[in-house]
Write a structure and sequence with these properties.
7-stranded mixed β-sheet; 2 domains; binds ligand KE4; 4-stranded mixed β-sheet; Aspartate Aminotransferase, domain 1; Aspartate Aminotransferase, domain 2
């Protein structure tokens, strides 16, 4: 494929923005090569500035459950835009979208809109600390909750739980109240509560981790988190920025029938526009200013344009059989590739319409496992997919998504390309670009 225009644009972008991108993972550093400059999306397809078409499974990292440029979403946004963009005042559309979210997400009685997942998580943590009067936060290695200072920590030594920051610019003091332990490790999380009685404000978890690739929780693990937090006066926060409205209309908390105390959302509820939200039990959420003394604010929070896109998106998700059809297509796709992959010792990890192909001989159950994947082979796989018109999320540690716009024919084409590429890769040492 000719990608000269993307290559030239990237050279210019790198002079203007660090790494030429506005979010690190877009720079293709995990897979090598130059990122593509995309200038159009249409349903399941993205088009780069050289005119190449790709079947897209990155879906802007999750928001585009309906695919690109959904006509209902675009139409509602265009109509809303004609009345203005932002008023810095209450707007009826906030009521409409909040009502939908509260109706569908079991644990949310009241909520607040913000402008990103990071902001939602940052605010939920402050709220949990304000409500409990405690400081300690527990997270899981490999789970990503946005770039707030005190959550950018990898696990330190498993024994002493002293985390190390995974970014420069974070004072040690900022992370001394963060404990990070392996996901799916029942004993470790129990020990954390034994070692810190009455001190833990909250446990935050992606109920379906998507930021180390898709990792499914061991049966009983999330229930254990619910029990430990409840028995210790701590809050359980489900970070459903990815899984919310993805794995079902009620998110992972409905799928697993576990009610957290607080939930963070983003991505899908904005239909491709900047959005985040956090909410939960009324007695907790009412602590947020101006009602209570936990401060949080935002110039464009609840802006009409993001609200309109979210409303239009959720109206479609609410249609009968939306998830039945989406998940049936996802299963159809998995059945096309899974038997083939497993014969080659490659793992398919999925939860409904979110999936990861791990180049590993064992399905990962935690972050350490994912680090043992063959990253070089994944990089080669990703580049060969691009050469063949299929766009996967550019990292082994990320998730891919099937949208309602992917037709069976798109999934069949992608499955054939995947099978040919992994078959070829399995019999070859080096990565040579081949167009099938
Ligand atoms: P944002 O601030 O990027 O809107 O959301 C942060 C966030 C919070 N919680 C979870 C579970 C998330 O996955 C994210 C962000 N997801 C990444 C992709 N895995 C966004 C892509 C990027 O960083 O460019």
């Amino acid at each position: 494929m000719d990608r000269q225009k993307s290559a030239s644009a990237f050279q210019i972008a790198k002079k203007l923005m660090p790494g030429g991108v506005n979010s690190p993972v877009r720079a293709f550093q995990n897979v090598g090569g130059n990122p593509l400059f995309i200038n159009r999306g249409d349903g399941p397809y993205m088009f780069d500035i050289d005119g190449n078409r790709y079947i897209d499974f990155c879906a802007s990292w999750g928001p585009l459950i309906l695919g690109h440029a959904n006509h209902a979403v675009i139409g509602k946004v265009q109509k809303t835009l004609r009345s203005g963009t932002s008023f810095g005042a209450p707007n009826i559309l906030e009521i409409e979208l909040a009502s939908k979210i509260i109706k569908h997400v079991p644990s949310i009685e009241k909520m607040r809109f913000v402008n990103s997942g990071t902001e939602a998580v940052m605010s939920a943590i402050r709220l949990a600390r304000g409500f409990t009067g405690r400081d300690l936060i527990v997270k899981f290695d490999g789970c990503y909750h946005g770039h707030v200072d005190y959550l950018l920590t990898a696990a330190g030594s498993g024994v002493i739980n002293i985390p190390q920051a995974s970014s420069l610019g974070i004072p040690a003091d900022f992370i001394k109240n963060t404990i990070s332990v392996p996901f799916n490790d029942f004993e470790m999380i129990e020990n954390v509560f034994k070692n810190h009685p009455g001190k833990i404000a909250a446990v935050i978890v992606e109920p379906v981790p998507g930021n180390m690739g898709v990792i499914n929780s061991t049966p009983g693990f999330l229930t254990l988190l619910r029990e430990l937090t409840r028995n210790n006066g701590s809050l359980l926060i489900f970070d459903e920025v990815i899984s919310g409205f993805r794995v079902g209309i009620g998110g992972a908390q409905e799928l697993f029938n576990i009610k957290p105390d607080l939930t963070t959302l983003g991505k899908i509820i904005g239909g491709g526009f900047p959005v985040g939200a956090y909410g939960g039990r009324k007695e907790i959420v009412d602590l947020i200013a101006p009602l209570g003394n936990v401060y949080q604010a935002g110039t464009l929070s609840g802006n009409p344009v993001s609200m309109a896109a979210g409303i239009a998106t959720l109206e479609i998700l609410e249609q009968e059989n939306f998830y039945k059809n989406l998940n049936s297509n996802a299963e159809y796709f998995y059945k096309l590739i899974e038997p083939f992959l497993s014969n080659l010792n490659i793992q398919l990890a999925c939860c409904k319409s979110m999936f990861t192909i791990f180049f590993s001989d064992k399905k990962p159950v935690n972050f350490e496992d994912t680090k043992r994947c063959d990253i070089e082979k994944f990089s080669c796989f990703h580049n060969l997919l691009l050469e063949n018109g299929v766009y996967f999320s550019p990292s082994q540690f990320e998730t891919n998504f099937i949208s309602s716009s992917h037709a069976k024919s798109d999934l069949e084409i992608a499955a054939e390309k995947i099978k040919c590429i992994v078959r070829d890769l399995s019999s070859r040492k080096a990565c040579v670009i081949l167009v099938l």
